[in-house]
Amino acid sequence: MIDTEGxxxxxxxxxxxxxxxxxxxxxxxxxxxxxxxxxxxxxIYIAGYxxxxxxxxxxxxxxxxxxxxxxxxxxxxxxxxxxxxxxxQQ
Length: 90
Known about the structure:
The protein is mainly beta. The chain has no helices and 4 strands.
């Protein structure tokens, strides 16, 4: 799976999908820079239909590549839903 910058998304922990979008959570990774400071990244990537802004990208642009929307949280669980429109007849 490729993100918007052309990188392969690795450390995948969970994948959720419905008829219109997909979410991928990644496992936390800690890196240390040359001065000894540690940074931990984790989070969620999304892709799909975004007509109402439901992909948490702060706009209504649909995504065909994975887009990181959360990177400072260790996601424990996630879920996606699909809205069903039911026409009631009398």
